[in-house]
Amino acid sequence: FVSRSSQIKREKPEDIPDLKCLVKEKFTALENSNSDSDLQRNEKYMYFKDQLKQMRQQYNDNEAIEQIDEDIAVTQSQMNFICPITQMEMKRPVRNKVCGHSYEEDAILKIIQSRKQQKKKVRCPKIGCSHVDVKGSDLVPDEALKRAIDSQNKQ
């Protein structure tokens, strides 16, 4: 043991192998041995390519794509029917005149009431909204939204 440590001390620092250099060499060698032909043989890669091909064939007719766009539009508008507080479809939506977001009337009024007792401001419950002072006086019935929800539910 003693002789080994004295041997290391005697060795010049440039004799110690450059690890960075060795790793780079190994990595480059490995990289070069990985070829596209390996990918062609990879089961998961082949499966993925097949899936893409099938999807392309399915949606080549534009009607399918238009149908998807329509479905997305409908789903997005239905999303707007959901109260950000209750996560339920709104029955009596009110719109905030300041930031334009809508909530279930009872739910937002309850929050305003409880925060008022704590002498705290109410932040708009819509995710991503920066409005931090929601007041009862800013809320107006959202008639258009109510009509949209009602007509959706009649269908």
From TrEMBL:
Keyword field contains Phosphoprotein: no
Entry keyword set: Ligase, Metal-binding, Nucleus, Transferase, Ubl conjugation pathway, Zinc, Zinc-finger
SUPFAM superfamilies, A to Z: RING/U-box (SSF57850)
Cellular component annotations (GO), alphabetically ordered: nucleus; Smc5-Smc6 complex
Segment forming the signal sequence: none
Domain of life: Eukaryota
GO biological process terms held by the UniProt record: double-strand break repair via homologous recombination; protein sumoylation
Localization, UniProt: Nucleus
InterPro entries: Nse2(Mms21), Znf_MIZ, Znf_RING/FYVE/PHD
Name of this chain's protein: E3 SUMO-protein ligase NSE2
Natural source organism: Upupa epops (Eurasian hoopoe)
